[in-house]
Amino acid sequence: MASHAANLWVLLGLGLAGIFLMTKRLKKTIKADFGAFIQKLELLPPPQPAPPKAPHPLTGLNFAVSDVFDIEGYVTGFGHPDWLRTHEPSTRTSPVVLALVEGGATCIGKTVVDELAYSIHGENKHYSTPTNPAAPARIPGGSSSGAAVAVAADFVDFSLGIDTLGGIRVPAAFCGVIGFRPSYGVISNTGIIPVSSSLDTVGLFAKDPSTLRRVGLVLLQLPFSVQRNPKQILLADDCFELLKIPKDRISQVVTNSTEKHFGRQVLKHENLEKYFSSKVPSLKEFYSQKINGDSKISSLTLLANVAQILQRYEFKCTHGEWIHSEKPVLDSAISAQINETLDMTDKEIEICKLVRTEMRLAVNNLLKDDGILVIPTTAYPPPKLGSKEIFSDDYQNRSFSLLSIASISGCCQVTLPLGYHDKCPVSVSFIARHGGDRFLLDTVQTVYSSLQEHADTVAKSKLSPNAVKQEHSAEAVKEKGNQAYKDKQWQKAIGFYTEAIKLSDNNATYYSNRAAAYLELGSFLQAETDCTKAISLDKKNVKAYLRRGTAREMLGYYKEAIEDFSYALVLEPTNKRAALSADRLRKVFQ
C-alpha cells in the first residue's frame, strides 16, 4: 500500500513537472506579441484637414512595417544582428511608409523578417521565429513573417512587407490573412533594402478586403475608374495538380463563388505548362544553357529555376561584398544558397531577362484587361516548426513553380484565405495582368464574402469520392466537346456534351454549349430547350440568353428573342452582340 502510494506521488510529481516544463516552454515560445515585432515605435499622421475637406483616407488605421523599410533615426536590421551592427541609422523614411502616414495611418513598429529577407519559411534563429496565430505548431512563412503575424493576431489593421519569391504570398497563405503582391514597379522601392532588384515588390497584408483596397488605392495612387467584372476566370488545372491537399477543397469554392457572382460561362480551364511552353520560347534556350538531365522538364519548373537563379545572382551582386567582409552567421540552408558558386555568363543573364519579358507578355495576352488567373498559393499546407520537409526538392519545386508565375511576369497577385483543412489554413490566389491592380482589388472586394461562405460549406460537405470523380470526368468530356466544336464537328460535339450532361446534369455550361452546336446544325428547337435548361440552372449565363435569343429569332418568336437579347445586355452592358441583335429586331418588328 505504501509502495503504491509512493508510486502515485512519483507519477503526480512527474505530471506536475511536465506541466511546469510545458508551461515554461509555451511561455518562452508564444510571446505577448507572438514574436512579430522587433521594435516598437510610433509615427503619427498629420492633423485632419479642416471641413469641408475630406478626412485622410486611412484615418483610424494602424500598421507595422517589415524590418527592410527605412525609418528615419532607426537602423534597418534586415533580419540579422550583424547587419544591424554594421549599419548606421537611416537619415530618411521610406516614401511608401511616409505616404501611408500622410494618408492618416499610424505606424506602430517594425516586424521580424527572415535572415536577410532571403527565405520563404519565416524562421529566424537570431530573433526567434514569430508564432503563427492560425497554426502555432507550424511555420508562419516568410520572408515577411512578422508582418503577417501582426495582422493575423490583430495587433495592426495592415502591414507592409516585401515579396521577392513569395515573401508576402507564403506568409499570407500560412497565417490565414490576405496578401497582396502588386504589379512589379508600380510602387517605389526607394528606402527599402533590396533582395533581388528585378523581382522585389512592396506588398501588404490585411485582415479584410475593404482595408486591403483602401490601403492599396493609396499606395498605388490610382485614379478613379468604373468597377468592372471579370469576363473570364481561368483555373490553371495543372497548377491545382501540384496541391498536397484535395484540389476540390479550393477549386470547388472558386467555381461556386464565380457562378454566384458572374455566371458559370466566365469559368475557363487552362494548362499553364503547355501555354508557357509555346509562348515563352526563351525557356527552352535557358534550359539548353543551364539545365542538364530530363528533356521533359516542365516549363513551370524551368520558371522556378529562372526565378531562383535571378534572386541568387542579384542578391550576391548587391550584398556579396558585405557577406564576404563580415562573414555573418547564417542559417545553413540560406548560407548554402548564397555561397553556392554561381557562374552566370552575360548571355545567360540576358536569357533570364528575356524570359521575364516574354512571361509578362504571355500572361497579359492570356488575361487581357478582364481576366483572372486562379492558382493555389502554395502546394503544401504550412509545415511543422523544425520540419525538414521545407528543404526537400519536392517542396521547393512545387512551391517555386507556383510562386514564380507572378514573380517572373511581374503581374499582380492576391492571396485569399479559404478556411482550414486538417487544422491548417487553406488559401487561393488570383492573378491579373501587369497593371491590372485596381481590377484585381475590385474583384477581390466583390467575391471575398462569397468565397468565405462557400469555403465553409465545402469544408463541411461530405461529397463522395465517386461524385467528385464524376464531376472531373464530366469536365474532361466537355473539353473534348469544346475541341470538336472548334473543329466544326458539330454532331461529335453534341455527343460529348450529352455525355457530360449524363455525368453531371446540373451544369448550365454543358447545356449551353450543346445548344451552340445545335444552332450550327439548324436544330433550333433543341437549342432553345437546352438554353432554357441552362438558364434555369444559372440565371446569369449570358451565352445561354444570347443563344436562346438566336434560336427564338430563327423560330419566329421575335418578341421573346428581343427579351433574351435585352436581358443579356442587362447582365453584360458592354456586350455588342446583344445590343446589335436587340436593336436590329426592334427596328424590324416594332
From TrEMBL:
Residues 55-212 form the Amidase domain. Keywords: Membrane, TPR repeat, Transmembrane, Transmembrane helix. The chain crosses the membrane at residues 6-23. PROSITE patterns: TPR, TPR_REGION. It comes from the Eukaryota. InterPro entries: Amidase_dom, AS_sf, TPR-like_helical_dom_sf, TPR_rpt. The keyword Zinc-finger does not apply. SMART domains: TPR. TPR repeats lie at residues 474-507, 542-575. This is Amidase domain-containing protein. It comes from Gossypium mustelinum.
